[in-house]
Design brief:
binds cytidine-5'-monophosphate; 18 helices; binds zinc ion; six-stranded mixed sheet; inorganic pyrophosphatase (n-terminal core); five-stranded parallel sheet
Length: 483
């Protein structure tokens, strides 16, 4: 990424903003995950602030049936956020049929193979996507971040949309774009703008998930990705570790959360964790990653699900992936009353489902192939969260962290969902899961796409065998020909 990439992205955002400003009625349609919700919330608020009438809707996918539905609406402009790039040719066709101007604000890979030279429509002036300008859509800018560029381009007069940076960071973090060194590329610039505006607080802190709401023993026990012997996935070990420390880890008869601890008690836990992990032979790179930049939403109450971007993104996933994107959207718009309590109920269900999904995986394990691994959840894991489970189990005991993972689950609509997850070192070796999912799905009569590191597909029932053969062939070609 260079300064000129950002400039080109901003110019494209300005062009897309012009189309919106010329509209009389806009429909913003978005994807049903944390990044999709925050994308829609950012775009919708910015359009409203520009005094253009706008309605927001969500869809699990963007296939021909959904596009056909859109042709029946009366909006003169339809803005696609956090999806659309993979379907751009179809969107153009249906836009002509339905007489609407399409605008796409996305970060997914356009539906071309990397070796193709992109057809000109990919670079149309209504298509805002970081990948068109040499910015990585899987790590440097999310859908919400792309919408933030659009929001800034929609500003005029007194309007200042920088407050929306907080939601852009929730989207990026929800899409797993924060690494050990924190957010990078334009995501990082957005976070800085949010900090300047007073909506974000960025500080190095313990990187474990759940510092705002998890009781300390759970915070430590659920640190599976760090694999600390005798603490991670070990509830009595985590309690023992805490009891051996000279800190006030309890108050009002219960365990404190991380944010309820005094600064010096936090320091004690951290240094003891480091010493303990060294003594148990944990690799230095794991220990170094105990601390990372943490993104807090400055306007949210400390100790709530909305204070830290990681937990905020989980509560959003708990709404949209369970058929209630309206609840998540209201939270993004600022409802801290009814919607938040509904979302907390959904969050309890989501957590239970994730735990059950991981339990199922632990019982049944993966099928190990030469250069990938897969498991079939049948109807035991919801299709909308099987990707999250796949991402969580990759690297756990029983999986090979150096092979991509593919997970199947049946959908309510009577087909199969496939989710795939890889890692950075595989991507460096040539892995492009988006291409694998798109081509393998096409081969069996389905559709797929996404990012190099994480992608998905929907395919007809009973095509898994053929699909797996395709994966094998394409994967072999990718890993022997690093791009
Ligand atoms: O559709 P969207 O782009 O919003 O979703 C991206 C998906 O890719 C998320 O589910 C996220 O968890 C996953 N991802 C990942 N690892 C990365 C980047 C993205 O698992 N490094
Ligand atoms: O659904 P899942 O979390 O596995 O999706 C991973 C990534 O692949 C997401 O960015 C999602 O938007 C994308 N995807 C896609 N086309 C599909 C299914 C998923 O682009 N048919
Ligand atoms: Zn996204």
């Amino acid at each position: 990424m260079t300064d000129s990439s950002i400039l080109q992205l901003k110019n494209r955002a300005t062009q897309c903003a012009k189309y919106l400003l010329d509209s009389t009625s806009v429909l913003c349609i978005s994807h049903i995950d944390a990044d999709g919700l925050t994308s829609a919330a950012i775009a919708t608020q910015a359009i409203k602030r520009a005094n253009i009438p706008v309605t927001t809707a969500f869809s699990k996918r963007l296939g021909e049936p959904e596009l056909r539905q859109l042709t029946k609406t009366d909006y003169d402009t339809i803005l696609f956020t956090d999806f659309g790039s993979g379907q751009i040719e179809k969107i153009i066709q249906y836009g002509e049929k339905g007489n609407f101007t399409p605008i796409i604000c996305d970060h997914h890979q356009p539906s071309i193979t990397p070796s193709d030279s992109p057809p000109s429509e990919f670079n149309s002036d209504f298509h805002l996507n970081p990948l068109l300008f040499g910015i990585n859509g899987a790590s440097e800018l999310s859908g919400a971040g792309t919408c933030y560029f659009l929001a800034r381009a929609l500003e005029s007069g007194e309007v200042d949309n920088r407050d929306l940076a907080a939601l852009a960071i929730v989207g990026a973090v929800g899409d797993m774009q924060a690494r050990e060194e924190g957010l990078i590329g334009p995501n990082k610039n957005i976070a800085q703008e949010g900090a300047e505006k007073g909506v974000l607080n960025i500080k190095p802190d313990l990187s474990f998930y759940g510092k705002q709401t998890r009781p300390l023993p759970k915070l430590l026990e659920y640190s599976s990705e760090f694999g600390i012997p005798g603490i991670s996935n070990d509830s009595s070990g985590a309690i023992r570790f805490l009891k051996n420390l000279n800190i006030e880890s309890r108050g009002n008869g219960k365990w404190k959360t991380w944010v309820e601890l005094s600064h010096s008690d936090q320091k004690t836990i951290l240094s003891s964790l480091v010493t303990y992990s060294i003594s148990r032979g944990l690799p230095p790179e794991k220990i170094n990653s105990f601390i990372a930049p943490v993104y807090e939403l400055e306007k949210e109450i400390i100790g709530t699900e909305l204070r830290e971007a990681t937990e905020f993104s989980t509560i959003l996933n708990a709404t949209a992936r369970y058929g209630r994107p309206d609840v998540g959207l209201s939270i993004c718009f600022g409802d801290r009353d009814k919607s938040l309590s509904r979302a907390k109920n959904l969050l309890a269900v989501h957590r239970r489902n994730l735990a059950e999904g991981i339990g199922l995986f632990n019982r049944e394990g993966v099928v190990m192939e030469d250069n990938f691994q897969w498991f079939h959840a049948q109807d035991k894991i919801r299709d909308t969260i099987v990707g999250i489970v796949a991402g969580m189990v990759l690297g756990m005991d029983g999986t090979d962290p150096n092979k991509p993972i593919f997970a199947f689950a049946q959908t309510d609509e009577g087909d199969l969902k496939v989710s795939s997850r890889g890692n950075l070192s595989l991507v460096k070796k040539g892995l492009n899961l988006s291409e694998i999912m798109r081509l393998s799905a096409q081969y069996v009569g389905g559709e797929g796409g996404g990012h190099d590191i994480a992608a998905g597909a929907t395919i007809p029932l009973k095509t898994e065998k053929l699909f797996l053969e395709q994966i094998k062939t394409i994967l072999e070609a990718q890993l022997s020909n690093p791009s």
